[in-house]
Amino acid sequence: MSAGKFYVTTPIYYVNDQPHIGHAYTTILADVLARYHRLSGAPTFFLTGADEHGQKVARAAERAGMTPQEQADTTVVRFQALWKRLGITNDDFIRTTEPRHTRVVQAILKDLHERDDIYRAEYDGWYCVPCERFYTEKDLVDGKCPEAGCGRPVERITESNYFFRMSKYQGWLVDYIRQHPAFIRPDFRRNETLGFLRKPLNDLCVSRPKKRLSWGIELPFDRDFVTYVWFDALVNYITGVGYGSDDALFRRWWPASCQLIGKDILTTHTVYWPTMLKAVNAPIPETIFAHGWWLVGRDKMSKTEGNVVDPMAFADRYGVDPFRYFLMAEMPLGQDASFTEEAFVRRYNTDLANDLGNMLSRVLKLVHSHAGGCVPAPGAEGAEEAHLREATLQAARAMRTSVEAMELDRGLASLAAALRETNRYFEKRRPWASAKAGDATALGTTLYHALEALRVVGGMLYPVMPEKMAELRAALGLPGQTSDFDDLTRWGVLAAGRRVGEPRSLFPRIEPDSRDPKLATAVKKDAMTPTPQTSPTSPTGPSASTAPTSGAAPVGVTAIAFDEFQKVQLRTAKILEAYKVEGADKLLRIVVEVGEEKRQIVAGIAKHYAPEQIVGKTIVLVYNLAPAKIRSVESNGMLLAATRGEQMRLVTLDGDLPSGAMVK
Ligand code: MSP
C-alpha cells in the first residue's frame, strides 16, 4: 500500500432516480479502499457527490412536476442518507449545482475559449437523447446509439455549438496511455480505450443551446448556451479538492490516486477527462479503474424489468456490514457479477455465520467456562499452532496486497480460507476435551491461538465490516478500531489475562425470505428462486432447481444444484485475434470481443487449431472465471471445447448472434 497520500473518487451520481446497488457498490468499494489506506497510515481523501445538471435530471423533474433544482434537492438526500446508512466515510460530497463548482467550470470554459481550445461551429450529426452524446454517421451501430447497453434510436440534429479541441490531444493521449500502464485498469479496459483511439478523435461538443436544454451551467462567453453535462460533471473531481480556489489543498490531493468508475463510462473518463486536464495543464490521475456491472441473476438490472435492487431495503433486512462484505467478496474486481439473494444468504451463512461468528462464540464460551473469562496464557507453540499462525498471517498479507492490486475479492477469499483453517484447527485440537481432561496448558494454547486468528482476520476485515468488526474486537477485549496494520501482521499481540466479552452471536444464521414485500421489489423473485427447468444438458433431469438427491446423477458424475450452475456465466464471444504462445506448443493467446468489451484468454487448443483458423468464430466463453496467468500470460476467461480422446472441437454457435449474448 502506498505510503504517500491516497485520493479516491466515485462517479457522481445522477439525481434523476433513487440509488441502486450499482451506486452502492462503487461507493462501498471506495469506502473500503479509503479505510484500508487510512489504516495503513496514508493521508486519505475520499470524494463522492451528485451530478445534478443535464437532460436526464431535467426530464425527471418534468415528470415529477418539479423544477430541476427541486428534483436535485429531493433526490440528493436519498443518496446522502444511503451513504450514512452504509457507513460511508467520504470526506466531502460535491453537488454540481453548488457555486464552488459552477465557478470553476465557468473559469475553465472561459480560459479554453480565450485560448481557442473551445471554438464555435455548426454541427450536423446524430444525437442520443438518453446518453446526451453526439455521434457521427460512422459511429452508429445499425443506425442506433453505439453506447454499451444503449442501442436506442438517435435523432438528427443541426445546430450551432461550441467545441473543445479534443482531437488536438489524441496523439498525446495515446502516448500517455502507452507509457502509463497503470492509468487505465484493468488492462483490457486500457486496450479498449486504445482501440477506440485508433479512429480519429472528434472534437467534443461542450454546449447545449438553451432553447433545447436550459438546465446546466451557462457558458461564460455566450448566454444562449449551457455546458454539456459531462464537461461540467468531470470537473467535480478537481473542484472537490480546491482547484481554482485553494491551491495548497489542490496540490495536496491532486492528482487522484484512484478514480473508480463503471465500465459504461470508460470513454468519458479515459478520453474526455485526461484531454480536458491536459488542456488546462493539470496532472493526470494515477488510475482510472473500471469495474464491471452487477447483474440480477443473469439479467441486466433495469426499471422496466422491475429487478432493481434497493440497497437500503437489503441493508435493512440483512444488516449493513454483511451487505458490504457480500458486494466486495462476490464481485471479481473488473468483471461483471451476479446479485441474487440466494448467493447472498449462502455466502453469509458460510463465511460469516458459521466460520466467523460461530467460531467466535465457541471460543468465548470456553474462555468463560474454563479460563475465567480472560485470555489464557498459551503454552509452547506446536506444529498445529505454527501452521495456523502462518496461514492466518499469510492471509493478512494477501489481503494487504489485494488492496494495492485491486483484487479485493481475492484478499477476502484468503481471509475466509484462514477462518476455515481456524475452524479446522479448533476441531483438531478439541479444547473441550482438553478442558475435560484437566489439561489447562493445551486448553489455554488452543484458545489463545484461536483468539489470535480471530483478532488478525477481524482486524483485516475491519474496513469492509467496520461495525461488526468493532464488536468482534470488543468481544476480544480490544479497543473498537484497529490502531494500525502492523498489529495485524504479528502474532501474540493479545495479552494473557485481559478480560474478554460475553459470547454473542455476531452473525445469526439467516434464511432467505423472498416473501418479504420490501425485498420482492428489491430483487426480482425469479432471480432468487429459480423456476424448475427441463434441460437436456442438465444431469438432474426435469427439475434442476431441486436439491440433488442421491442417485440423481449418473454414477461418477457429481450432481450440482441449479443455483450452483447459475453461478457460471457463459457468454458468446467473437475471436478477433489469435497468436501462438512462444515456448508453449499447446497454447494460443486469443483476443475476443464480448459485447463492447475486449478480453484476452489463453487456451490449450494449439494442437488442434492454427490461429488463422479460429479468427472470426463465435465461441462460448466462461465469462466469470477468475483471471489467471498461464505461462505468464494473463487469461480472462475460458473457452468451451468438446474433447474425446485425441479429438477436440470448439463449441460454436448454430447461427448468428452478437457477441456478449448470455448462454443459458
Ligand atoms: N453522472 C454520471 C457519472 C459522472 S462522473 C463525472 C453517471 N451517473 S449514473 O448515476 O448513471 O451512474 C453512476 C455509476 O453507476 C456508473 O459508474 C455506472 O457504471 C454505475 N452503475 C450503473 N448500473 C450499474 C450496475 N448494474 N452495476 C454496477 N454499477 C453500475 O453515469
**Silhouette:** globular
The low-pLDDT segments are: 515-558
Number of helices: 22
Q: Decide which structural class fits the backbone.
A: alpha/beta
CATH architecture of the domain at 340-529: Orthogonal Bundle
Give the name of the CATH superfamily of the domain at 340-529.
Answer: Isoleucyl-tRNA Synthetase, Domain 1
Mean pLDDT, all residues: 88
Radius of gyration: 27 Å
Number of strands: 27
Give the names of the bound compounds.
5'-O-[(L-methionyl)-sulphamoyl]adenosine
User: Distance N terminus to C terminus?
Assistant: 40 Å
Q: Approximately how much beta-strand content do the residues carry?
A: 15-25%
Characterize the largest beta sheet: strand count, sense, and whether it forms a barrel: 7 strands, parallel
Report the CATH topology name of the domain at 340-529.
Isoleucyl-tRNA Synthetase, Domain 1
CATH domain class of the domain at 340-529: Mainly Alpha
Helix content: 25-40%
